[in-house]
Amino acid sequence: MSFLKKVERIERMHSLIKYKRTGTPEQFAQKMGLSQSMIYLIIGELKKMGAPIVYSKYRESYQYEYPVHFKFGFSNPDLDEQQLRQVSGGHADRRVKLKAILTILPDSAA
């Protein structure tokens, strides 16, 4: 699997976790097209990186303990979102940015 495909898989997992739509570990594995053991492995790796992932028995879903922001890509710290749109011809789409930097930050810090 290519590096970019792995990043896209993590982005999809993040989205499902963020919106509490993973379902049980078995359902999450089915949604992702992975084995349960691979789901556990990836979640473990994300936790090592600082992702505050927990499983809610009540919701039957993985979720974050507190809101986080996941970003993977290059960005110019001197440009805000509006300036980025101007530079990139009105498109501030994440695909315009090259993939390379990973940050998991509380939303308040982003």
Backbone shape: globular
Radius of gyration: 15 Å
Q: Any idea of the CATH topology of the largest domain? A: Arc Repressor Mutant, subunit A
Give me the CATH architecture of the largest domain, please.
Answer: Orthogonal Bundle
Give the biggest sheet: 2 strands, antiparallel
Proportion in β-strands? 15-25%
Number of strands: 4
SSE-based structural type: alpha+beta
CATH class of the largest domain: Mainly Alpha
Low-pLDDT segments? 94-110
Task: Describe the protein's architecture and organization.
- The structure is a single chain.
- The chain has two domains: 64 residues, Winged helix-like DNA-binding domain superfamily/Winged helix DNA-binding domain (Arc Repressor Mutant, subunit A, Orthogonal Bundle), CATH 1.10.10.10; 41 residues, no CATH class.
- The chain contains four helices and four strands, in the order αααβββαβ.
- It has a two-stranded antiparallel sheet with strand order 1-2.
- A hairpin with a 4-residue loop joins strand 1 and strand 2.
- Helix 2 crosses helix 3.
- The two termini are 30 Å apart.
- The relative contact order is 0.16.
- The C terminus is likely disordered.
